[in-house]
């Protein structure tokens, strides 16, 4: 069983439980004042195991499933026997890192709460797009239409705009920082642990895509 599938199963089980248990939801949700005043740092991680509703859960877990299996396999190729460990490390670390800006902004905001695995899922997706920029993807449930090297910057630009505008109850900041962490992780850890040059591989992947489409010779 892959690490990705284990994460999905665990997240679904805990999310299902929290849907019917408000106390469980409150104990696990990201609530900045509880971290500021009661040092409940575990909330950085447990909030990624619960979701607002079934739609939220399904979207995140489908995204993780479609990209996670691929990225996990690539990590094994890059890091060898330790690939799965580094993949899990990236996912768990992303849960924490993606919420640091949110915590800094809302550490004393008693009305703020956040939940969901979106930040960590974004880390997985963007790590995958850096490794394989030629993979074609779409927005939300739109079929694959554009290559990853175009999708990635568009996603960040749109997320930054929506975060600035404060659209909806979505923590766009977590998406952005999760995505950037995924990029940074594979660049830095890949270079120093496995001598993997993610930037060079990315450029080669873009060239490969353009050649396949007949845009370059």
**Number of β-strand runs:** 2
Query: Strand fraction band?
Result: under 5%
- The run of helices and strands is HHHHHHHHEEHHH
What is the CATH superfamily?
A: Rhomboid-like
What class do helices, strands and sheet pairing give?
mainly alpha
Largest sheet: 2 strands, antiparallel
- State the helicity in percent bands: over 70%
Question: Which consecutive residue ranges, at least 5 long each, have pLDDT under 50?
Answer: none
Total number of distinct structural domains: 1
According to CATH, what is the topology?
Rhomboid-like fold
Features:
217 residues, Rhomboid-like fold, 2 strands, 71% helix
Question: What are the SSEs and their pairings?
Answer:
Layout: H1 3-19, H2 22-28, H3 32-38, H4 43-46, H5 54-79, H6 83-97, H7 100-106, H8 118-131, E1 136-137, E2 146-147, H9 148-165, H10 172-194, H11 198-212
Antiparallel strand pairs: 1-2
Helix pairs in contact: 1-5, 5-6, 5-8, 6-8, 6-10, 8-10, 9-10
Q: How would you describe this protein?
A:
The chain has eleven helices and two strands; from the N terminus they run H-H-H-H-H-H-H-H-E-E-H-H-H. The chain is mainly α. It has a single domain (3-212), classed as Rhomboid-like (Rhomboid-like fold, Up-down Bundle), CATH 1.20.1540. A two-stranded antiparallel ribbon has the order 1-2. Helix 5 (54-79) packs across helix 6 (83-97), helix 5 runs parallel beside helix 8 (118-131) and helix 8 crosses helix 10 (172-194). The termini are far apart.
